[in-house]
Design a protein that fits this description.
It contains nine helices and no strands. By secondary structure, it is mainly α. It has one domain. The radius of gyration is 17 Å and the shape is globular. Belongs to the DedA family.
Length: about 200
């Protein structure tokens, strides 16, 4: 879990390039599942409201663009290398249970997974690659990819921006950690529900 202060420092120093790089890595590279997608977007939105360094339109544009390109790269990795990329042994950066969780999510929701996965940690990283492995028609994937990227990449920063404009700038630092925790908790809720359903079914 990344600390809010670290995210704020990253955005102050790396600005839009940091957003582009992290969102792309989290959505396009299999090793990017540990990156702070939801919390980073929320903090970027809040900072664009209370500080002068970031513009909300620039934040949303960067996040949407990086999310579209990232998912496309993930899809191409799946199409090019197929199931073999998921057969590697467990390591510090590769957890088979994350792949299995994403696969179950994909089997349940089909193409809509590409949209829904944007809001689910871990699944967000592996879903486009699984779509590529499964041979999903690319124009269909691209449509879901763009819709999901806009809803997530623009929606989460916009929520942060609205929060930042609602809470006085002098007190926003007191609440930012709580807001990030709420967003991350909500994003983890689908994963917890799915795990509960699987455990109940197994029992």
């Amino acid at each position: 879990m990344f600390e809010v202060e670290s995210l704020q420092h990253l955005l102050r120093t790396g600005s839009y390039l940091a957003l582009l790089g992290i969102v792309f890595a989290e959505t396009g590279l299999l090793v990017g599942f540990f990156l702070p997608g939801d919390s980073l977007l929320l903090v970027a939105g809040i900072m664009s409201a209370v500080e002068g360094g970031l513009n909300i339109w620039g934040v949303m544009a960067c996040c949407v663009l990086a999310a579209i390109v990232g998912d496309t790269v993930g899809y191409l990795i799946g199409r090019r290398f197929g199931p073999a990329i998921f057969n590697r042994p467990e390591s510090r950066f590769f957890k088979p249970e994350h792949v299995q969780r994403s696969y179950v999510f994909f089997q349940k929701h089909g193409g809509k997974t590409i949209i829904l996965a944007r809001f689910v940690p871990f699944v967000r990283t592996f879903a486009p690659t699984i779509a590529g492995v499964s041979g999903m028609h690319y124009p269909t994937f691209l449509a879901y990819n763009v819709i999901g990227a806009v809803l997530w990449g623009a929606g989460v920063p916009l929520v942060g921006y609205l929060i930042g404009n609602t809470i006085p700038a002098t007190t926003v630092d007191k609440y930012i950690l709580l807001m990030v925790a709420v967003v991350v908790g909500l994003s983890l809720l689908p994963v917890l529900l799915e795990a509960w359903k699987l455990r109940k079914k197994a029992a």
